[in-house]
Amino acid sequence: MRRAAVAIAAGAMAVSLAACGSAKESGDNAESSGSAKKGDEIKVGLLLPENATARYEKFDRPLIEKKVKELTGGKGEVVYANAKQDASTQNQQVDTMVTNKVDVLIVDAVDSKAIAGSVKKAKDANIPVVAYDRLAEGPIDAYTSFDNVTVGKTQGEALLKALGSKAKDGQIVMMNGSSTDPNAAQFKKGAHSVLDGKVNVGREYDTKEWKPENANANMEGAISALGKDKIIGVYSANDGMAGGIITALKAAGIADIPVTGQDAELSGVQRIVTGEQYMSVYKPYPQEADVAAEMAVALAQGKSLDSIAKDKVDSPTTKAIPSVLVPVVSLTKDNIKDTVIKDGIYTVSEICTGKYKAACDKIGLK
Fold it and tell me: What's the mean per-residue pLDDT of the chain?
């Protein structure tokens, strides 16, 4: 899969993420925290958080594996494990990786706080850790993700645009992500910065484990509490939850209200085509995955990250982490061609299957 054409030089983005609480300086990252200088025969441990969200198995894993092979002339090995949304399982997986003496870890944490002890174990074993997609706590050496506050702002701005002059004619429901995911808090912060004062929030939820079924149950509760005629839109933090929300809306006979999303999942894009979902946030996974692989290989080989990571981010436990934040795009039916299709994420035939063909034809997606 080729690199995302919409991606821009992430290092050019000014980054300033404040962290609270006492923090350990990460001045020993890059060269001094990496393993002894190695050649291309390195072993990269890759730990992803779950497999219910389509992106991890469809994009992140194969993209990282491909880039590691490319950077090491085919000699580098990726050892993979998926925690299936269980923080304890992920901690055990880190222990196994440490025991098996991987040269570097890429970790997308199930729970950013719960992983901290395992990150320290890796560090004590002289195994550098790249926090991927979520800013894990503990002495991590590098971090790459998307600008998560901007993601929330993008969603909020899209929802306001869809509501137009009717923004205060009723109430919206806010369906945020899991409270254990630091990204969810940043999405929420960004959304509120745009929506507060401009809409009436009737109900707001932090959705356990990001599960669509939990979002569905929450939405049913919101409909019961607010009344189906009072709800004019839904802020959904991702596409998976949007699916559960839209199922609840349909069951209650609610149609034609904007619902946001994130991740540009195939099902989400198809709902955008039909108009059931208003938008998603397209995140160029090829660039994020490439950066993670570049960081991991450099750290495993004992090289500096100066040429890769131009910015610094603070976590609650570690300061000045070398970081790359990748920009995002608001995806609506108007720019499907110019984003996920142009970048090779999906083909028209993948999106426009039988029951979606008429809707695709209507918006010129052929």
Answer: 91
Q: Give the angle 253-199-215 at the CA atoms, nearest 5°.
A: 45
Q: Residue type for 274, please?
A: T
pLDDT tens-digit profile of 48-62? 999 988 889 988 999
Output the pTM of the full model.
0.77
What does the pLDDT read at residue 37? Answer: 64
**Rounded to whole angstroms, how far apart are CA atoms 147 and 280?**
15
The total of other beta-carbon atoms located within 10 Å of residue 178's CB is 20
Tell me the three state secondary structure of residue 162.
Answer: helix
Q: What is the Cβ-side half-sphere exposure of residue 27, based on CA atoms within 13 angstroms? A: 1
Strands 142-146, 129-132: parallel, antiparallel or unpaired by DSSP? parallel
Residue 157 gets the label, from left (phi > 0), alpha (psi -120 to 50) or beta, of alpha
Q: Which of 47, 48, 46, 50 is nearest to 211 (CA)?
A: 50
SS3 sequence of 62-98:
HHHHHHHHHHCCCCCEEEEEECCCCHHHHHHHHHHHH
Percent helix, strand and coil across the chain, each rounded to 5? 40, 20, 40
